[in-house]
Specification:
With about 300 residues, the protein is of the alpha/beta class. The protein has 12 helices and 8 strands. The longest helix is centred in the last third of the chain and has 18 residues, at about 230-245. The relative contact order is 0.14.
């Protein structure tokens, strides 16, 4: 199913009860919400899921539940990464990936490896993985940028390295990847605000945060961008840009959880060290959401 991993992917949150346990009922509601509104694939246990605060047993329970609820309707990409290469490999070798179509693996954080270290890190993960691999470049969180040459080298040398989620914000770097990549290597936007322009430049899709809340609108924008319907796609992009900007003012996933609470899809609970958005940001999000109406082009 890896060939079908394109278009709009949603980086799922993990809902929590007020006392801290996982709210599986709300998780199922959000999965149904995003699938019914048109997303093309789901990303589980990524950064937006607060995976760093989940135990191994909780991660297993979350992924098994998502596999059950999705029921093969869309591909599932699972976040598997870390800054200890051997530990990531051991995890891959000791787990079943039944029901998982692809791995999303973030660049090692904190260690700040050289490009040679990044290459060998992902080479070993690609060699160990029983499913295709999408690289995840987000230097704003990791302090570790996967540069163009390293990305292209991995793309050419490993058939199962099928794409990259690019959240560097460096348009020149991303354009160079699009220019130099092999034929079937996909480039996904990792930044909701830059998705429309990146699609116009030749990217293949997005792994989105706002699609948790507005899957219909964001999927419409992505699909029309990929079809070359620039005007229709642009109308949606500009209708959402203020919401997207406000969404990240107090960090992710604090913003999207506040928004999902406003929409009645889950409670606004996070695990430390993350906390809720401040009151001013919450009020701004609430006003933006309540005043939002989809452009006529989508109806």
């Amino acid at each position: 199913m890896s060939s079908e991993i394109k278009g709009t992917g949603v980086a799922l949150i993990t809902p929590f009860h007020i006392y801290g346990t996982i709210d599986f009922t709300s998780l199922g509601k959000i999965v149904e919400h995003v699938i019914s509104k048109g997303v093309d694939f789901i990303v589980a246990l990524g950064t937006t899921s607060e995976a760093a605060t989940l135990s191994k047993d909780e991660k297993h329970a979350v992924i098994e539940y998502i596999i059950e609820v999705v029921d093969k309707r869309v591909p599932i990409v699972m976040g598997v990464g870390g800054n200890n290469t051997q530990e990531v490999i051991d995890y891959i070798k000791s787990n079943s990936f039944d029901g998982i179509d692809c791995i999303l693996s973030v660049a090692p954080y904190y260690n700040k490896p050289q490009q040679k270290g990044l290459y060998y890190h992902f080479k070993n993960i690609a060699t160990a993985s029983p499913v295709p691999l999408i690289l995840y470049n987000v230097p704003g969180r990791t302090c570790s940028n996967i540069d163009t040459e390293t990305t292209i080298r991995l793309a050419h040398e490993f058939d199962n390295v099928i794409g990259i989620k690019e959240a560097s914000g460096d348009l020149i770097q991303i354009m160079q990847i699009i220019k130099k990549r092999p034929k079937n290597f996909k480039v996904f936007s990792g930044d909701d605000a830059l998705t429309f322009p990146l699609l116009m430049l030749g990217a293949d899709g997005v792994i989105s945060v706002i699609a948790n809340a507005f899957p219909k609108e964001f999927s419409f924008m992505v699909n029309n961008s990929l079809k070359g319907n620039r005007k229709k796609a642009g109308n949606i992009h500009y209708s959402l840009i203020d919401i997207i900007q406000a969404l990240f003012e107090d960090g992710n996933p604090s913003g999207i959880k506040a928004m999902l609470d406003i929409l009645g899809l889950c409670s606004n609970n996070l695990r430390l060290p993350l906390v809720k958005v401040n009151k001013a940001t919450h009020n701004k999000l609430q006003q933006l959401v309540e005043n939002y109406s989809s452009p006529e082009v989508i109806n």
